[in-house]
Amino acid sequence: MPSQDLNVGLMGLGVVGGGVAAVLQEQGDAISRKIGRRIQLKKVLVRDPRRPRSAQVPEGMITTNPEEILADPEIQAVVEVMGGTNPAARYLRAALAAGKHVVTANKEVMAKEGPELLALAQRHNVHLLFEASVGGGIPIIGCLTNQLLANEVRSVRGIINGTTNYILTRMAYQHASFPQALKEAQDRGYAEADPTNDVEGIDAAYKLSVLAYLAFQQRVPPENIYREGISRLEVQDFRYAQELGYAIKSLAIANAADGAVQARVYPALVPVDHMLAKVDGVYNAVEVEGSLCGRVLFHGMGAGREPTTSAVVGDLVEIARRMNGSGPPPLVAPREQAWAVKPIDDLYSRYYLRLNVSDQPGVLAQIAHILGDRQISIAAVVQKDTNPAEQTAELVITTHTAREASVQQAMKQVSDLGVVRQVSNLLRIEE
Ligand code: NAP
Ligand code: HSE
């Protein structure tokens, strides 16, 4: 006979797991007073039991054997905060198949296997909740799954990686170097085990895939999401963007129209008076545009121990409240007719182009000619940072709306001009 407590097996005792263990142990009475049921930590799975940890967990609770959680009939809920796909996905499947509720912060697993795992949870009449997988402490998953369900969602766009937003903010305002800012983000517990996932937009693509599934009931696999990281940005880009009235933010955008979805992650110029331009540091923001609610903006800390713990424990509270049969778990069923996923070539956007050119007459005319031939209309041109010794200058061009494929082809042709040393950067401008 299961107890009235919700007994929890925790898989992972790192940044997030440590926070969850601490809250369940230190705030157990307060939570139980609020919901009328105790959420009891029973077992904790780690890789290396000798590793020193900030979270105090009784020694007898620690195990390196996943079966001590998966095969324990008294454990009704598993919290997976290990990260990576394997063995995490295997443990999640085993927990669901054993009739255990699951809470995970793992965006990679949810992006790659979310629909199958949700269907498995449904079959076993258990909950699979993943609020912490996107946006840290921001309650975006619950809102897309429940409160905004009546909407046809047109777009989801935002800043959904805390590490890159922290790095970009430090580079823009304090002129920190990239490695220095990344090290700080790691020290604060924001970064993934392999920070390449953050810096190259992989983590944001996983999260966008999760959001797109909930928003459009349409699978958008991470490999179909166009992705550019932040490592190509240079200090001049921040300076020129600022002079032109923009901030640079790494955006994740998915929109749906005419039975097709387009999804992408890249650093973009955002007007300084736009709300997304003001989202700094580890903060994330997600803007959802729905047919009924219009534009709604969710804002909050997107990474770190405390905000993520808040989301994980929130999911456990939901499970504890729904224990003992308050209806089947919610199913996010995919559309019967799958939508096409549009390639980046079909994107229409404004562009910021930074070119290193010979400082001599006629250069701009040659470039303008190539752009004009491809129907790309120039909005503004500024010549910056002339270098008299090398007789070079930086040319910064902004365009009106143009097709991505045309801009890419034009830049290839421009880079072949003898007077162009290099196309230093190409960024989209989001309005
Ligand atoms: P972390 O600090 O690296 O902790 C991972 C924990 O999992 C460690 O305790 C590790 O054990 C354990 N672990 C890993 N592989 C294992 C295995 N094969 N068997 C047993 N235990 C294993 O990671 P984190 O930052 O807490 O992130 C955990 C998850 O939450 C990831 O999916 C991440 O994307 C997600 N997330 C993180 C944040 C954040 O701000 N950090 C925010 C939202 C979501 P040892 O300690 O013994 O090595
Ligand atoms: N590495 C992730 C980030 C953690 O920086 O946003 C939160 O998902």
Summarize the biggest pleated sheet.
12 strands, mixed
Q: What is the CATH C level class of the largest domain, in words?
A: Alpha Beta
Which second-level CATH architecture of the largest domain applies?
Answer: 2-Layer Sandwich
Whole-number total of structural domains: 3
Average the pLDDT over all residues and give the rounded result.
Answer: 95
Radius of gyration: 24 Å
Distance linking N and C termini: 58 Å
Coarse morphology:
elongated
Which small-molecule ligands are present, each listed once?
NADP nicotinamide-adenine-dinucleotide phosphate, L-homoserine
Taking pLDDT < 50 over at least 5 consecutive residues as the criterion, the unreliable ranges are none
Approximate strand percentage: 25-35%
Number of strands: 18
In helices, the fraction of residues equals 25-40%
Please state the structural category.
alpha/beta
Describe this structure in words.
The protein is α/β, with parallel strands linked by helices and 431 residues long. It starts with 5 loop residues before the first strand and ends with a strand. It is elongated. The protein contains 14 helices and 18 strands. The mean pLDDT is 95. The strands form 2 sheets. Strands 7, 8, 9, 10, 11, 12, 13, 14, 15, 16, 17 and 18 form a 12-stranded mixed β-sheet that branches. A 6-stranded parallel β-sheet has the order 3-2-1-4-5-6, sandwiched between helices. α4 (88-97) packs parallel to α5 (107-123), α7 crosses α8 and α13 (363-373) runs antiparallel to α14 (404-415). Helices cover 35% and strands 27% of the residues. A hairpin with a 2-residue loop joins β9 (246-257) and β10 (260-271). It folds into 3 domains: 6-136 and 306-322, NAD(P)-binding Rossmann-like Domain (Rossmann fold), CATH 3.40.50.720; 142-301, 2-Layer Sandwich (Dihydrodipicolinate Reductase, domain 2), CATH 3.30.360; 344-429, 2-Layer Sandwich (Alpha-Beta Plaits), CATH 3.30.70. Bound molecules: NADP nicotinamide-adenine-dinucleotide phosphate (NAP) and L-homoserine. The site of L-homoserine (HSE) has 11 residues, from α7.
